Here is the input.
Amino acid sequence: MSNALKGKVALVAGATRGAGRAIARELGAQGAVVYCTGRSVAGRPATGNRPETIEQTAELVTAGGGTGIAVQTDHTVPEQVQRLIQRIAEDQDGRLDILVNDVWGGDELTSWGKPFWEHDLDAGLLMQQRAVHSHIITSHFAAPLMVARKSGVIVEITDGYKPDYRGSLFYDLAKASVIRLALAMSEELRPHGITALAITPGFLRSEAMLDAFGVTEENWRDGIAKDRHFGGSETPHYVGRAVAAVAADPEVAGLAGKTYASWHLMERYGFTDIDGRQPHWENFTAAMHRG
Here is the structure.
């Protein structure tokens, strides 16, 4: 699949860390120009004490074979998103081939173990603004570039693909909403040759998760002693490779409106995680329950 996206232009909204950073890197590894956006820039972190920045992501994209371009953007502010899309249009002669809506920002806002009437209301509503409204705003301004060219792929990043309750009303609503957004956009964009779909990772071994388990990517298996579910985890690059494979698929229109897990797309395209594994979270958890 090397250079399968050469000449393509991508926007990864929420590319600072985790899945967004890895998606940007994997798109770049296939030759794409990748606009890496988010709020955290050098010297001005926007998420707690996390050190990652969009400049770092853009540098990693370029080092991996693509062209990374960092643009600080708060995707909940329409004016900032509009300026971002105008810049892409000017830079790339009106071209935008791939949009990945990965903005989240809800970890610090979720109170697990509380019913919704005891959950902080302002935090719950802010979560919808960050994780749902931002996706709508970004797609609203980005879609016309794709419509003009009658080509493009929009990917919504979510958590889970089944209608099961996710443990918190506000969290559940945010993750389910972007799945529905992918379906609704696919219906309206299909006549224009544009495909929208949603993708979920499994147990994501993100930078924050590695820190929480007190391990690094090199010795991540040590974390299994704390939680055996960690044995079925995947790096953010796994979902990154899923997105890159979808973006390069000439038959991508057949995926429109649906939600896929990283392991579903692994079975379709045959990619591996960076350690050569092919994690299948659903099979892993099923085997644990049987055992």
Notes: The chain has a mean pLDDT of 95. The two ends are 38 Å apart (CA to CA). Strands lie at 9-13, 33-38, 67-72, 98-101, 152-157, 194-200, 259-261.
